[in-house]
Amino acid sequence: MDFQTEPIIHVQEAGIFQGLDAVLTNVTFSIEKKEFVFLIGRTGSGKSSLLKTLYADLPLKMGQAEIVGFDLSKIKTKEVPFLRRKLGIVFQDFQLFPDRSVAENLFFVMKATGWKDKSKMKNRMAEVLMQVGLADAASKMPHQLSGGEQQRVVIARALINDPEILLADEPTGNLDPDVADGVFKLFQEINKQGTAILMATHNHDLLRKYPYRVLKCERGQLLDSKTSDISINTSY
Ligand SMILES: Nc1ncnc2c1ncn2[C@@H]1O[C@H](COP(=O)(O)OP(=O)(O)OP(=O)(O)O)[C@@H](O)[C@H]1O
């Protein structure tokens, strides 16, 4: 056993619910620092529900789950913003404010997460935009950017508070294949710099090309390529 690593996410016999309905039961897995993990499964199999439970958008009603030091079985509503500060969350639909520039979009999140010093905010904004390859986009409006560029801004926004893990729900789902590939490579670079990534995807090409660990939602269970044979070519 490697005592150097400690999990960022540790889930033990959890139930994932949508209201009264159990979507996944007996969910057990850990994600270590710096890991890259795909989350796959058919439409409706529970990928988003699992991610939502991890960022405390859905309550954990059964079992144990710890993420970036927060116990999801005990977390209080007022603690959720502190949990979200330690996570980066990226969705399929870009969810930028359309009437605000890139800089204003990023500043909005900074203010909401406790940043106050203007010059530090500007420096951090420049850093994250540089990191995603958009150093020249601060003054642009979202509609002046391509889909891939908008998703890069969303990734920059998710990186602002230097999260230990990015939770990404179909981040390349709305992008053309070439653009999706570029955005995926950005996730890989971010991962190489030390951020763990849990990415829900339907993209078979990515799964075939990059042999990362896979978690698969199937028939109400979560399978793990660490412990089971997972077919990536069928049934989703
Ligand atoms: N807001 C909601 N209220 C009630 N049930 C929901 C809600 N969102 C999803 N569900 C149900 O929960 C189950 C899991 O859905 P979920 O969105 O987690 O699947 P998914 O694997 O992410 O699907 P997709 O690949 O289409 O995004 C489905 O049966 C779905 O109908």
UniProtKB/TrEMBL annotation:
InterPro entries associated with the record: AAA+_ATPase, ABC_transporter-like_ATP-bd, ABC_transporter-like_CS, ABC_transpr_LolD-like, P-loop_NTPase
SMART domains given in the database record: AAA
Assigned keywords, A-Z: ATP-binding, Cell cycle, Cell division, Nucleotide-binding
Gene3D superfamilies the UniProt entry points to: P-loop containing nucleotide triphosphate hydrolases
GO BP terms: cell division
GO molecular function: ATP binding; ATP hydrolysis activity; transmembrane transporter activity
Any single GO CC term annotated in Swiss-Prot or TrEMBL for this entry: plasma membrane
Family: Belongs to the ABC transporter superfamily.
Protein's name according to its UniProt entry: Cell division ATP-binding protein FtsE
Taxonomic source organism: Belliella pelovolcani
